[in-house]
């Protein structure tokens, strides 16, 4: 198991925000960093024999150009997480320094834009495996670190690339593994919208459908929340998804988000399983996110503590 290096620790809310780094096998042994908010009773000194591994965990997956610091510093969720006694994990958004040609050229591709998938194309597959990092590696690393967490109780929250394509697709790909998923301004249909098409064309192969139809390739659909939702085998009534989108979001206007596609994909699901709310006048920024994160954390707490 990779060895964690503690980089910093700051008192916040009822606990501490701690930054760790480690060499990630999922990312081809590149160093990755994450922040974790540990509410007070999990970070207070205790002996191994008295430690209770009873703190549920919420992952926050940030969007394009962000690092592990965005949600922790600007997301406005730590007071509520402290009140609810929930840990929040903030991973980075991509590998850093893989040295792949083109990796640093664009803000919406490569560094800062890992799209929470496992790349299959030759150039990217060694390092760009953020899906494995989030789903398998980080939970094991956290378990091993013995921080008092209960890793059988995990929920997912995210923003933009970090949710529609990140947390929501991870949630839908793993029925029963996570308690709930919530989203701010998610990229709901990445296999048909510009950011997703650009990323999937390079990270995933093949980049065209074998029968030359208009349908995206299966490998793209397997990371597309709208397709995943419409074909989900999760029993009716078992999903818990909350989505907020601002009506003044420029990326909504530019057709990057397409929340209506996600809503259409819910039509065979039980009412209330997937709630999509349009929030009047809000944009794509952390002002929007931080307005609603307290409500989202409380909503997740219901499922994490059920
Ligand atoms: N081109 C700009 C815009 C980048 C941007 O808006 N990033 C969003 C996420 S977009 C979808 O994943 C973000 O969260 N930015 C951080 C913030 O503090 O708002 C640029 O290069 O900055």
From TrEMBL:
Its EC number is 3.1.2.12. It catalyses: S-formylglutathione + H2O = formate + glutathione + H(+). InterPro entries: AB_hydrolase_fold (IPR029058), Esterase-like (IPR000801), S-formylglutathione_hydrol (IPR014186). GO terms for molecular function: carboxylic ester hydrolase activity; S-formylglutathione hydrolase activity. One of its GO terms (cellular component) is cytosol. Gene3D superfamilies: alpha/beta hydrolase. The keyword Protease does not apply. Pfam families: Esterase. GO terms for biological process: formaldehyde catabolic process. Keywords: Cytoplasm, Hydrolase, Serine esterase. The keyword Signal does not apply. It is found in: Cytoplasm. It comes from the Eukaryota. The active site is at residues 160, 249, 284. Belongs to the esterase D family. Serine hydrolase involved in the detoxification of formaldehyde. NCBIfam families: fghA_ester_D (TIGR02821). This is S-formylglutathione hydrolase. It comes from Tremella mesenterica (Jelly fungus). The lineage of its organism: Eukaryota, Fungi, Dikarya, Basidiomycota, Agaricomycotina.
């Amino acid at each position: 198991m990779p060895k964690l290096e503690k980089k910093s620790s700051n008192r916040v809310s009822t606990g501490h925000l701690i930054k760790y780094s480690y060499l990630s096998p999922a990312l081809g042994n590149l160093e990755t960093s994450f922040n974790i908010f540990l509410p007070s009773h999990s970070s207070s000194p205790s002996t191994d024999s008295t430690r209770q591994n009873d703190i549920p965990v919420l992952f926050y997956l940030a969007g394009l150009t962000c690092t592990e610091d965005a949600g922790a510093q600007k997301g406005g969720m730590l007071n509520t997480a402290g009140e609810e006694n929930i840990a929040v994990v903030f991973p980075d958004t991509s590998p850093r320094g893989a040295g792949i040609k083109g990796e640093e050229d664009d803000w919406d591709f490569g560094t800062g834009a890992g799209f929470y998938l496992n790349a299959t194309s030759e150039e990217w597959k060694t390092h760009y495996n953020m899906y494995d990092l989030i789903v398998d590696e980080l939970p094991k690393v956290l378990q091993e670190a013995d921080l008092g967490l209960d890793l059988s109780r995990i929920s997912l929250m995210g923003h933009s690339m970090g949710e529609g394509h990140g947390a929501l697709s991870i949630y839908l790909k793993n029925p029963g593994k996570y308690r709930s998923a919530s989203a701010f301004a998610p990229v709901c249909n990445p296999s048909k919208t510009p950011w997703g098409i650009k990323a999937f064309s390079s990270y995933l192969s093949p980049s065209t459908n074998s029968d030359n139809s208009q349908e995206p390739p299966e490998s793209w659909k397997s990371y597309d929340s709208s397709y995943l939702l419409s074909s989900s085998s999760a029993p009716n009534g078992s999903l818990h998804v909350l989505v907020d989108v601002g009506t003044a979001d420029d990326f909504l206007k530019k057709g990057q988000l397409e929340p209506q596609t996600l809503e259409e994909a819910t039509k065979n699901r039980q009412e209330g399983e997937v709630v999509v709310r349009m929030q009047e006048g809000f944009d794509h920024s952390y002002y929007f996110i931080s307005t609603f994160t307290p409500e989202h954390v409380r909503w997740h707490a219901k499922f994490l503590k059920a």
